[in-house]
Give the backbone structure.
Amino acid sequence: MSMGGAGTLKALKDKMGALREENDILKEKLEVQQRVNDGLKQDKDNVLTPEEIFVTFDPAQMVWGPVLSEWLTFQAEQEIQSLNRRIQLLEEDMERSEERLQTATEKLEEASKAADESERARRCLENKSLLDDGRIDQLEGGMKQMELVANEAERKYEEVLENLNNASEERTDVLEKQLTEAKLIAEEADKKYDEAARKLAITEVDLERAEARLEAAEAKVLELEEELKVVGNNMKSLEISEQEASQREDSYEETIRDLTQRLKDAENRATEAERTVSKLQKEVDRLEDDLEQERKHKLELQAEMEATLQDLNELLAEKERYKAISDELDQTFAELAGY
């Protein structure tokens, strides 16, 4: 289960890397577009809405192309920032999933080690129990043998008593020796029996302790099995979280594709706007050239009119002089006629 979770996380990391690369490409495109727009826009602090673009359109200055490009760039930047925030949230979610998976894996390893240790302890206890059973069997066999020896000694003792009653005085010493030997054998048998009983009691105590340790080990195994179940449930939860993260990742990929297409559309619109601005700029240049020609023609006409006006003023002055001379001649003629 841990190998499957690790493989899913690796695939998730690869997809996140691809998303970051695609995001970097979008950022590079945006920077290129921004540099192009920086060469055109006149007021970088004036970001307008589409309605404001048409309201502030000035046909004389032809500035609507840079404003539209600036607005499209601003929209693309906002979408890229939103995408970066989503990618950051996804990375944080992935880091939390990795931490939970690492914790669950460590707990699983600890539980496995504890289970192995408990299994080894259980086997040791079983082996020791088997050895104790063998020793008990040996002691029981020894006790049976001692019982046989004791019975044999008792039988011989009875035989000696019987022989004492039936034997003659010449065999009394021999029978007494045999009786003494029988008593010694009986005492030795009793000692061996007591030793065997003591060892059996010690073995029973050791066996009870071993059984208690075995029960504790079995309880520990049950506890570890419960922990393994909990770890398994946690692993399932992690796999579900990974699937949900994968689904969110697919949604982010779709969003990135949509943003990429929208960015391309914005770039196309900006390019078209630039071409339109270029055409209009050429038209403005042509009109400015025509206006300059008209201004020159106007200046020439003004100069010609001023020259004509000056000539006219000179003619009027000449006319006044002629009139004065004529009046003076008329007066002279009138005086001459009086004489």
The radius of gyration is 61 Å. The chain has one domain: 2-331. Residues 172-338 form the longest helix (167 residues). Confidence is low (pLDDT under 50) at residues 1-6, 40-65.
